[in-house]
Every structure is written in C-alpha cells, then in structure tokens.
Amino acid sequence: MEIIMAVLAGILFTTAVYNLLQKQMLRIIIGTALLSHGAHLFILTMGELKRGAPPILSEEVEQYTDPLPQALILTSIVISFGITSLLLVLAYRASKKNGTDNMEQLRGNEYE
Amino acid sequence: MSNLISLPIVLPLLAGIIVAFLANNKPLVRRVSQTLAVINLIVTGFVLYQVYQNGTIVLETGDWIAPYGIILVGDMLSVTLAFTTNIIAVACVFYASKSLTDQQESFYFYSFFFLLITGVSGAFITGDIFNLFVFFEVLLMASYGLIVLGNGKAQLRESMKYVLINVFSSMLFVTTVAFLYSVVGTLNMAHIAQRVQEVEQQGVLTTIGILLFFVFATKAAVFPLYYWLPRSYSVPNPVVSTLFGALLTKVGIYSILRVFTLIFAWEADLTHTLFIYLAAFTMIFGVVGALSTNNIKLIMAYNIIPAVGFMLMGIGIFTETSISGTVYYLIHDMIIKGAFFLLIGVIAYVAGTSDLKKMSGLIHHYPVLGWFFFIATLVLAGIPPFSGFIGKLLLIQGGLAQEQIFIVIAALVSSLLILFSMIRIFIQGFWGEKTELAHPERKRAAHQMTWPIGILLSLSVLLGVGAEWFYPSVEWIGEYLMNPEIYIDSVLKE
User: Fold this and answer.
1) Domain residue spans in chain A?
2) Chain B CB within 8 Å of residue A43 CB
3) Which residues of chain B have pLDDT under 70?
4) What residue intervals traverse the membrane (chain B) (predicted)?
5) pLDDT bracket for residue A112 (50, 70, 90)
6) What is the pLDDT of residue B37?
C-alpha cells in the first residue's frame, strides 16, 4: 500500500513540475495545487498506512494508525487551499493589469 | 509564568484583529496601531528581561508534555530576535502613516503588518518544526497581502513570482518534514536533535538536512537561490520593503542557524563546508548585483544578499566566536537594514524618482537626511566604532582561527564593495549641484519620516559603541548554540 501511495505522490510531483514549467499562469497554479496534493499524500504515507485501524491510542486499542500525519496534513491542506485561492485571484488581477497571462512577457526588465 | 512567552505571538495577532475593525477611520487606526506596537515592544522587552534573569522559558501548550504537544521555547536567541523585530515594527508603524497612500492605508495595511509581526515572532519562538512551517505560512500570507498593496502593474507582476517561489519552497518544506518524521518519528526540535545525536546523523539524515537547508536558503536568499529577491523587494511601498528586508530573510537565516547548530550539527565537514562556499558566492554575487544598477531601491534590495552571506559564513565556520558573530550581525543587520530601507524610501519620495541619474544635490535641501545616510553607509560597511564592525570582526576572527582564508578575503572585498555601492548613492544623490526640488511641498512629511530612522540609527551606533555591554550576552548565546544539550535539556527536562 505504501509503495502505491509513494508512486502516486511521485506522479503528482512530476505532473506538478511539468505544469510549473509552463508559460500560462493558470497552468502554473494548477501545478502548485498538484504539488501540494503530492506533498500531503506523501506525509500520509510517511506515517505508515494501516487499513481499518483508528487513529487513537488508548489502553483497549491494540492496533492504531499514527494520528500525527493526519493532523499535519489537515493544517497543510487548509494552508494550500488558502494559497491556491489567493493565487487565482492574484493571477486574474495580474493578467488584467498587465494585459497578458504569459510569464514570458512578464519578465519586467525595464526600470520603474 | 511560562505563559509569558506566548505574549509576543498573541499580542500582535490580537492587534491585527482589532485594527481590522477600524480600517475606515484613518486617524484612529494610526493612533491605535502606534500604541499597540509600542505596547508590544514593551511587553517583549519585559519577556526578554525575564529570560535574561531566569533563563529559558518553555511553554507546553495545553499541558501536553514536551515531545508530544506543541511547545514554545523562549531562549535568549529567539527572544532577543523577537525584541529586535518589535523595534523595527515600531519604527515602521510611525513611518507608515506618512509613507502610505490613503488607498493603501485603508486596505488593511495595519492588519497585515501585525500579522507579519505575529508570524516572525512565532517563527523565532516555536520549538516544533511543523509549527515553524505554520508560522512561515502566517508571515508569508501577510507578506502576500502587503506586496500587492497598491495594485501597481509592476507590483502585480513581481508578486506573482514572489508568491510562486514561496509556495514551491513551502511545499518542499512540508515534504522534508514528512521525510524527517518518517526517519526520527517526532516533530519536536529538541527531540529530533536528541535522536539525530543518538545515531550521529548517519544515513539519510544529512540528505534531509540539506533539503531543509534548501528550503530555508530560498527564504533567506542564499546563492544561487536569491534571483527572486531584488525585484520583488523593490516594487512595494518603502515601508513594506523595510519589513521584508529587515525581517523576512532574517527568519530564513535564523532557521538555518537553529537547525544546523541544534539538529544537523554532526556532519559539519560536509554541510558546514558547503555553507562557507555558498556564503562566499552569496557575498560576491549580491554586491555585484548592487553595483550593476542605478535604481536606488534595487541597490538596497541587492544589499540584503551579501549580509546574508556574512551570517551564513559564521554558521559555516562553526566555532563559538563565529556563531556569536552571526548572532551579533543578525541583530545589527535587522536594525540597519530597517533604517536603510526607510532612508531609501524618503530619498525616493523627496526626489520623486528612484533613478540615481536623475537626482543630485539633495543635501542642500535635506542636510539631516544626508548625514543620516552617510552614517548608515558607514554602519553597513562596518567602519568602527559602529555595530557592523563588531559583527564582522567576530566573523573574521572566527574565520582566521579556522584558517578559512578564502572566505575572509571574500568578506573583506565585499565589505569594500558594499561601501562603494552605497557611497555612490551619497555622491550622486546628495552631493553635486544644487538643483530645484521636484516636490518642495513634501518637505514637512519628509522631516516627519526622518525621525524613526534617527532612532534606528542611534540604536545601531549604541550597539557598536556599547559593544562591551552587549558582547557578553551575544558571546553567551554563541556558547549556548554550540552546546545543543542545554536546549534539549531545558525542553525535555531530563
């Protein structure tokens, strides 16, 4: 199970990097979203996956899932949602104001 | 008593919320923000005094004991830096009301400002590596808000890149934390340090260390990861540039300092040697960038980079003297970079341009501004008796003691070039023929903007002249950082 998840995270990272290297702003944002999903899956995998075991630790429970990675990705998911929405709005404003959504044309070498 | 350490984080957070409700009433929001910033400074000063008197304060939030819960650690290093942060904050908040446009002020500048302070103080004080990430995000979120404030064409263009580079490095941070968690099974920095020490940093741990360094180096703008910094730091309002230049890169350096003295300190031959070379390149490339342009805002933004090189050099050399040098330089650099960015803001404001070629003879109209700039240049270049000298002296002493001649020469040469790059502004902008002022009506506001700079400068002079008072504490911090057991024991209470 961990192997499959690790491969999936790897695929997400690959597609994310591919998208990040594009010129169109929207694709770059999709790239960052995929990147964060990859990272979250990766955290979950690192805490070892156990199917059917609850994420609690008490005296009756013998088999349990590590609750910490779940707490971590919860925090991280919230942050990445916030950032993705901010990026979308920012990209919209930036493309409106500069008249292009092509990163190649947004280099900005002139002094201002 | 240990709850005291949460105040530097909680107070600015509350302040940020309070001023959000007042945003439409400009005179009120100014007064309230200024009062709250001063209160913050006083409270953080009190916390610093307590730590100085009674030693490290550890707060286990929610009474979850150390390796399990989230903890806040206020040791001398973190609280001193939080205090310095608040000094910059006070100077900025008094400067802001003059420097910001009405539109910028009513779009929640003060809320973002206080949230930024929350994030910076939190990153200094937290004792948990995941919460370091969370506080990084808090300060980055606030900085995203600040960098687009004003809605300019260039601002939107550069902020897009700034946000993207930070999102990427944050996600790398999370991935690295996942790696670290799977290897050592804990997130508490003291506990990680203990476990890494037990296996003497074998196997994959060095790789994880380098990955973490990559993340922090992106935030701190170490060579070759500084390309995003100069343009994004020169486009926003001067007061925002000040906050970024004085605080944000310093959080990156603090994280490197903390992680590589506490946790990954056992493969120094590999990691810390790498730092020395990177530090040399950082200094040289940064200062070359500063010499390459005529835009005073860009010159100043490039000047952040060699300072990062100096601090990294101290971490790379890794002796008590050099680590104390890094700490001294860190405090000095926060204050002087604050003063400098504010100064550049005033100069660009009164000259009506940031192009060096278009200004001349400002000293005839603004003598105080001119002399402040001159003193600040001397401080930055490290001319005795100012504070830059003491930090550089310690770093170079440390370097010579370890026979790292290469880095010492790079440091000396780049100091000279920094002096050259700044004196260029003084000669072209302040000397020269007396010309008619482009904006004579701005004189009064400019005078009101000058006095917060005076405070920062006098602090910086005090830090240099009064080195005998400050040096014992800084030396103690250096010794403390070289003995991670003290930190581990005070957190885990063994």
Assistant:
1) 2-50+66-103
2) yes
3) 1, 494
4) 6-23, 35-52, 64-95, 107-126, 132-150, 162-184, 204-229, 241-266, 272-291, 298-318, 330-351, 363-384, 404-427, 448-471
5) very low
6) 95
- SS3 string, B146-175, reads HHCCCCCHHHHHHHHHHHHHHHHHHHHHHH
Contact between B247 and B88 (Cβ < 8 Å): yes
The domain defined by A2-50+66-103 folds into Helix Hairpins (1.10.287)
Q: Kindly report which listed range (A23-32, A103-112, B292-301) carries the lowest average pLDDT score.
A: A103-112
Closest chain A C-alpha to B456 CA, distance in angstroms: 28
- What's the confidence (pLDDT) of residue B387? 82
Q: Work out the minimum CA distance from B181 to partner chain A, whole angstroms.
A: 7
pTM of the model: 0.93
- On chain B, the residues whose CB falls within 8 A of the CB of A106 are 157, 160-161
The whole-number pLDDT of residue A110 equals: 60
Q: Which of A46, A75, A93 minimises the CB distance to B179?
A: A46
Per residue in B181-215, is it b (16+ CB within 10 Å) or e — as a string? bbbbebbbbbbbbbbbbeeebeeebbebbbbbbeb
Q: Tell me which chain B residue has its CA closest to the CA of residue A21.
A: B164
- Measured distance CA(B264)–CA(B262) in Å, rounded: 6
Torsion region of B185: left, alpha or beta (phi above 0 gives left; psi -120 to 50 gives alpha): left
Q: Which residue has the tokens 């900025």?
A: B92
Query: Looking at the complex, does the CB of residue A17 fall below 8 Å from at least one CB of chain B?
Result: no
Residues 6+ apart with CB under 8 A from B371: none
- Residue B150 makes CB contacts below 8 A (sequence gap 6+) with B101, B103, B104, B236, B237
Q: Which of A72, A86, A97 sits opposite B144 (nearest CB)?
A: A86
Distance from CA of A3 to the nearest CA of B (A): 14
Which residue of chain B comes nearest to A44, CA vs CA? B178
Closest CA to B240 of B148, B376, B378, B126: B148
- Element at A2 (helix H, strand E): helix A2-20
- The helix/strand/coil state of A99 is coil
Q: Distance (Å, rounded) from C-alpha B418 to C-alpha B435?
A: 27
